[in-house]
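Run: sequence + NAP -> complex structure.
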Amino acid sequence: MTSPSPDSIENVIVVGSGPAGYTAALYTSRANLQPLVIEGFLWGGLLQQTTDVENYPGFPDGIEGPELMQRFRDQAERFGTRFITDQATKVELSDESGGVHKVWVGKDEYRTRTVILAMGAEHKKLEVSGEEELSGRGVSYCATCDAAFFKEKPTMIVGGGDSAMEEAIFLSKFASKVVVVHRREEFRASKIMLERARSIENIEWLTPYKVAEFHAGEKGGLEIARLRNAETDEELEVEIDGAFIAIGHEPQSHLVEGMVELDDEGYVITEGRSTRTRKPGVFAAGDVVDHTYRQAVTAAGSGSQAALDAEWYLRDTPGIPAPEGMPAGDLAEAQWAEPAE
Ligand code: NAP
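>> structure
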């Protein structure tokens, strides 16, 4: 645990610790910026809840999500990243170019020139009985990750948006059948996605139904979803091995609400193709920004972009002293201004 020193100003604080946060830490530590990562208690992000990851490049035999995250973390640590395994509880972001931002972990206050926001997103939960208990034992939030475990098994997708359609289409290639359960007759999904899903033979449809609860079978895995008709209250039981919940995501941006620009759904808005937010020295990467792709590999990519944006900001902003230990010429022609005091 790194304790704050009242006189020191960090170069980079990364808030969050999924692929985006750890990649930002890896890049900034390799640039000698000694980043501090506030990684949360349950570090590692959504991949900690995943079993086999078979679509992360470089691992042809797949890798367990938690092990992949451990490797990300180890790699960042190897180059001098420091970690606080606790939650960031408050931030205060300066409006000044070259200004000092503050991040709190409980009572401890950390000051920093740059902040990389990488708090990720959480899958929205149905919040029905059995959902949490059976998560990882039949209930999943990611068909792209887990579909292969349901080869020739009956499955269910819950949701009516593009994600639900995309998950259903993907899952239909593995499962014996996919029942799409949606709470309304109308679908939010785009026409093209809906039509594509409707054209697939082993996708079945149950509307307007809500999930009332999930039940385990004798072996402890998911066996039954009990549904309730949203109009008539009629109940229905469906036998399934896998249920995929695709009802949207919630970006974890509460910490910076009112400080950086957020869109209607709470995702952090960044400028153009960069990771810059409207606050000078504050960058955002990964699922807290990304509506669309939400892959470990895309999050890692954007973490590297945020690190480079932070590095360039430290280099190019007048009045910011060169970070200690920065070898001359490490950052292209380092144009560091003289220290302010
Ligand atoms: P979304 O469009 O917000 O859809 C969420 C769906 O879940 C809606 O049908 C909603 O029902 C349902 N839902 C929400 N809360 C629920 C609850 N508590 N119980 C039951 N159902 C609930 O989210 P998304 O599908 O994740 O898509 C997010 C964005 O990413 C969209 O802009 C989408 O177009 C985009 N996206 C695009 C693609 C693609 O083009 N390939 C793929 C994936 C996502 P209601 O409709 O009744 O509200």
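>> summary
Residues 7 and 214 are 54 Å apart (CA to CA). Helices lie at 19-30, 65-78, 143-146, 162-171, 191-198, 296-316.
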